[in-house]
Amino acid sequence: MQRRVFVLASLATLGLSACGFALRQAPKLAFKSIYTGIAEGSTLGTELNRNLEASGVRLIRDARQIEEADVILEVLNDQREKTVVGVNASGQVREFQLRTRFRFRLRTLRGKVLIPPAEILLQRDISFNESAVLAKEAEEQLLYRDMQTDIVQQVMRRLAAVKEL
Known about the structure:
This protein is 35% helix and 33% strand. It has 165 residues and is of the alpha/beta class. It has one domain: Lipoprotein like domain (Double Stranded RNA Binding Domain, 2-Layer Sandwich), CATH 3.30.160.150. The termini are far apart.
């Protein structure tokens, strides 16, 4: 019985390796150091910086050391929006739309634009119930965090698409 389980597990492993399956790895970036002009209190900036460091890039946060950076990531806009999209017959809010907008560009110290100004806009709809306000606030924060992670992954993929400086 144990031999049979071992053989089946070996076949499953062999099948996964043959199909090209591989765990997601940090992207290979064309630059060794980057200056990010992201505000210290930005949660999106913190997550982006963490992902950059995990990919082996030296992160420069001090503007006085900007000359040491291969590239500069300029954050043009980082904002969250919440708008009402649905009300009931008595005018009470029933649905909100949450949006996260992130605009950035990537350039070298000499001004060569590697990624022109790009915008990532994500939106999620959330229902509202006044009897569950605390739960809905927690759900809203969870949706914002999910959008933030998605934006960071998209930015990392765009940075990885830069092949030469």
